[in-house]
Amino acid sequence: MAVTRLKRKDRKNKTTSRLEVKTLKLATNIELGSRSQQPKKDQLAKNNLLLDQLSAALRA
According to the UniProt record, where is the region Disordered (predicted)? Predict the structure, then answer.
């Protein structure tokens, strides 16, 4: 099967989307500081606490 060349528009879209993904990954890093600390009432914090309790119960 032959390899087809992308048209200029498709090459641009491919590059742009790759750069957008890279930018989003860099932008979502949690930085140290008071504003980025996870709240105690957050559902993710509750889930982590429950998982810690269950894993401790299984170890005991």
Answer: 1-20
